[in-house]
Design goal:
The chain is mainly alpha-helical and about 140 residues long. The chain has six helices and two strands. The protein has a two-stranded antiparallel ribbon. A hairpin with a 2-residue loop joins strand 1 and strand 2. Helix 1 crosses helix 5, helix 3 packs across helix 4 and helix 5 crosses helix 6.
Length: about 140
Amino acid sequence: MMDLLRALYWVDEALQGGLKAHGWKNVSRAQSLILINIASGVHRASALATNLGVTRQAISQMLADMQKSGIIEFQPDPTDKRAQRVIFSEKSATLRDDAMSILREIEWELTRRLGRKRMAALRDALAIEWGAVPEYEPVDGRA
């Protein structure tokens, strides 16, 4: 399983390196993962917190920082008047476009390195619904 985590870090470091090469200032791992999620259609802070494995408070602080930087903005959620949607700001359109372009380049580079068959197999394996996260019983009263 460490290979899967290593792969995630590789993609993130490649994205961060690409953004830096395009002239964007340092983007943290958390910020780049938020960008990837938003670009993939995740627009609720609660879903971002779940995907990144952080608290709602932590994601709120990260999003506030990104809003101050002009990267993201909030808009009312048309399906839930109590909720806000997180979206790329107009100011960050170039950042969004650069990030999407870099992600396509990363995928192309992986295809080149792994070969088309392995890349297709990787896509297929990752696209399968893995089901709920396993639940574990506490061990010896440690929990």
